[in-house]
Amino acid sequence: MNKVIDIFDSTLRDGAQAEGISFSVEDKLKIVRTLDDLGVSYIEAGNPGSNPKDIEFFEKVRTISLKSAKLTAFGSTRRRDISVEEDKNVQSLIDAHTPVVAIFGKAWDFHVTKIIKTTLEENEKMVFETLSYFKKKGKEVIFDAEHFFDGYKANPEYAFRVLKAAVEGGADCLVLCDTNGGCFPSTVYDLVKKVKETFKIKVGIHAHNDCGMAVANSIMAVEAGAEHVQGTYIGFGERCGNANLSTIIPNLQIKKGLNCIPEDKLKNLTYSARKIAEISNISLSKREPYVGNSAFAHKGGMHIDGVCKASESFEHINPELVGNKRRFLMSEVSGRNTILEKIRELNPAIKKDSSETEAIINRLKQLEHQGYQFEGAESTFELVIRKQLGKYKPFFELEKFKLMTEQPTQNGSSASALIKVKVDGKSEITAAEGDGPVHALDRALRKALEVFYPELSCVYLTDFKVRVIDSQSATAAKVRVLIESTDGETSWTTVGVSTDIIEASWIALVDSIEYKLLKELEKKIKVYV
User: What pLDDT does 526 receive?
Assistant: First the structure.
């Protein structure tokens, strides 16, 4: 049987300390469900004594029946010179009623004497007594040796004394923390190995990314014998972030053959990353390993040709293993094979020398001459192909729209849009305000269409880019508008070109909505079939 690695996710605690992140109670509950569905071993849910929001969360999360993850409350050792029974933060961990507690204690003598201002001996007692207390209460106890690596560099004997106090106190796992994120993989490997040789209990790693080494340090810790890895699912956290579990899990499971999550859950890695990013109100980096939108994107003609012949020629794994997909980008350096692969996704029978292929290529050349560029706008590219193949039918018809702009009001709105659309012979007229004419137009269009297509209620724009194509034409220049949209699970990009920025935006908006409705229709057909 392959070695099991415990995956300990700290998105709700360490991740919540990232700049720009603020979880509501409902956000945290959604993330718990997502991580549990993915199959992680532990979900560190925060410090139940830190604020009213966390107190409410711990009350509500008890109503969720977890399938695989153990909910973990986080807190520190008792404070100096008081008993564990007197320490309110310690007692709040008991009140959280979680099966696991993660307790952090100082492993760096500098922090002991200068930060929490106590003696080295008292700090060891704080560790021992706190862990002993929780073990007597029947808890699984994980000890986070805060600043262990810096502590070892400064005073190796004392860093190990702290670990010894934790083991004697009953710790089930010793987690070595690179709290400042300044270690290199070789250092992590050597010290994890030394700890494993000294203490015969489970050892873990908690790495920060201040040197860009968090994932590498976590992998090297496992190479040295660690069986427990902490991080946040898409890597955000304080300062430069934490070790990224969406990278670590497939690295360990696919590349090293270790068991991190159930094998049948690997295909959910990409979906989970995008869902947690959506809940967190951040944009998932396109270049994120394994789960990013560009992780398996190919642009160069030679690369595309190689992938078409043998995917392993330019891909380190099959993207479907992690729930991602291969993308061929349209650009000046991609070739005819790129177009053919896209066509075959819609009609596998079409050949390289088919008349349909020639017609599509000619149409694409016409659009490119007008200023269209399809790299990063595969959704519009797919719609062009569908129109040429006769596999496209508009979902609505625009009857008219009117835009009005004005000085921004107190609520920030500076434009309003009135729009009338027709669907299956029925008309709907709607108005909306927005921060600028395009925003107002987008809101009005979706508001009108939601009457007919409720699934559009979850769609919104995540990016809007405008580029002037021929600047020498001054104010009469053509503009290219690129719009990225999402429904919270998937993202897609569309493009529009015109000398009128509103018209270019309208073209891209319509394609965005048409593409979403087309994909929803395909889902329904598959279910029906």
Answer: 66
